[in-house]
Specification:
With about 450 residues, the protein is of the alpha+beta class. The chain has three domains: about 130 residues, 2-Layer Sandwich (Beta-Lactamase); about 60 residues; about 150 residues, Heat Shock Protein 90. The protein contains seven helices and twelve strands. The strands form three sheets. The chain has a five-stranded antiparallel sheet with strand order 2-1-5-4-3. Strands 7-9-10-12-11 form a five-stranded mixed sheet. Strands 6-8 form a two-stranded antiparallel ribbon. Helix 1 runs antiparallel to helix 2, helix 3 runs antiparallel to helix 4 and helix 6 packs antiparallel against helix 7. The relative contact order is 0.06.
């Protein structure tokens, strides 16, 4: 038996932040209001008890004083002055009443507190004077009923107040989220408007920056998509030429019987184009890599010297001199990345240097910044092309020389590596002619533009 553990996301109910926020506000407000009502009810009971105890003690003290002076005291008229309508009784030693005043029928109880006397809840206080017991009491059932009415009234107020706060919160949150809901609806319609459509930026201080950031994200996303499309088109274009050459050479060789020397010549051409394709594919992989591994701070002098020594024979074959001035300098970059940069820059300098001229490599450290310069004595680069040459597959010449021409991707790889490693690369004019490629490592890492 196979259990189906798949999720149907269409049935998953989206959480409503408005509902959650409204519920939270209602709960908090309701709890605070209930606490305030509880404090008010408790304060009411305590104040009633304090006031009753004060009056009970006052009357009890007055009666006790009179009874201590006059043992035959039987006039409880003093109670008539009490606004609460207290009741009092004087009991004989055998428990029989000596004198009574008020509406309550009291019982002989000592101490003070609450008690049921003849079915009525009373708050009482007592005092023994000589052989008689004086009991003063107040009808506490009225206070209990009043406290119950107060609690019922507060409870009746609690519900509409909490509901009112919930409604105000819901309306406020709905109005607050209205621009966001509009942005969500507009975002859903962007696909119908075309790739260049963007969100309208609301004037709200909270959602305006969000719309701006989303539009910038869409700009970057669209730029990346176009870049990938251009990359695929350029890669296909670059791969088409060597494949066409390979196919043509093979088809020509198969038209008739060939001598071993002729087959060897064809295979040599096929090998050259295969090597060229392999080099192009490696360059494409490097240029399309999304992330680079972390690099330590490395000394570059040895790596630069090895690259110069490696390229000197090639320069000599073309009749171009290669000079180097190398000083100790460090940069956060891998050695293989440095080799790739130097190979591309030196190949570019050789490609544009006439026979008999001199190219120069300079490595130095100034003001804490590492500087690498590779200069040639070629025709130079016009100002309007000094930025374009760092784009993928861009060439300044249209000859597309198969022997010395590149793929038009080397400088793009150089810029990507250098920028990823916290540096910058630019091209300057060389005097009296030629170009100087300047690499500076500043330590401020940023993403390349292309």
């Amino acid at each position: 038996m196979v259990s189906d553990t798949s999720w149907n996301f269409g049935k998953v109910r989206a959480r409503s932040h408005r509902r959650r926020l409204t519920q939270t506000v209602c709960l908090v407000f309701g709890a605070i209001l209930a606490a305030l009502f509880f404090i008010a009810s408790t304060f009411y009971r305590q104040e009633e008890a304090r006031s009753a105890n004060t009056e009970l003690d006052t009357v009890l003290r007055a009666i006790s004083t009179e009874l201590a002076v006059n043992p035959n005291f039987d006039d409880l008229w003093e109670l008539a002055r009490s606004p609460r309508g207290l009741s009092a009784s004087i009991f004989q030693p055998n428990g029989d009443p000596w004198d009574n005043f008020g509406s309550l029928t009291l019982e002989p109880k000592t101490g003070r507190g609450l008690a049921m006397m003849n079915g009525i809840l009373v708050r009482y206080a007592s005092n023994k004077v000589k052989d008689r017991l004086v009991v003063v009491a107040d009808n506490w059932q009225d206070v209990v009923d009043g406290d119950l009415r107060l609690n019922l009234m507060l409870l009746a107020i609690w519900f509409p107040l909490t509901a009112l706060v919930g409604y105000i919160t819901w309306a406020t949150v709905t109005n607050t989220f209205k621009p966001l809901l509009g942005m969500a609806k507009e975002a859903g319609e962007l696909s119908l408007r075309g790739p260049g459509s963007r969100l309208a930026v609301p004037e709200d201080a909270e959602f305006g920056p969000l719309a701006v950031q989303l539009n910038e994200f869409l700009d970057r996303l669209e730029a990346n998509v176009r870049q990938q499309e251009r990359f695929v088109q350029d890669a296909a274009h670059e791969l088409r030429t060597p494949l066409t050459i390979l196919r043509g050479q093979v088809e020509t060789a198969l038209l008739r019987e060939r001598t071993p020397a002729e087959y060897a010549s064809v295979l040599s051409l096929v090998l050259d184009e295969a090597v060229r394709m392999s080099s192009l594919i490696e360059s494409l992989l490097v240029s399309s890599r999304s992330e680079m591994t972390p690099a330590p701070l490395n000394q570059l002098a040895v790596s630069v010297q090895e690259a110069v020594d490696r390229w000197r024979p090639r320069y000599a074959e073309r009749g171009v001199h290669l000079k180097a001035e190398i000083h100790p300098a460090k940069a956060t970059i891998l050695y293989q990345e440095m080799d790739s940069i130097l190979d591309n820059l030196l190949a570019n300098a050789l490609r544009h240097s006439p026979e008999g001229e001199t190219c120069q490599v300079l490595l130095d450290s100034k003001a804490g910044h590492t500087v690498l310069k590779v200069s040639d004595r070629g025709t130079g680069i016009p100002d309007d092309l000094k930025e374009k040459i760092f784009e993928r597959f861009y060439r300044t010449d249209t000859s597309r020389n198969r022997e010395y021409g590149g793929f038009g991707i080397g400088l793009a790889i150089c810029r990507r590596i250098i920028v990823e490693r916290g540096g910058e690369i630019l091209v300057e004019d060389n005097q009296p002619s030629g170009a100087v490629f300047v690499v500076r490592w500043t330590g401020r890492t940023r993403r390349p533009a292309n």
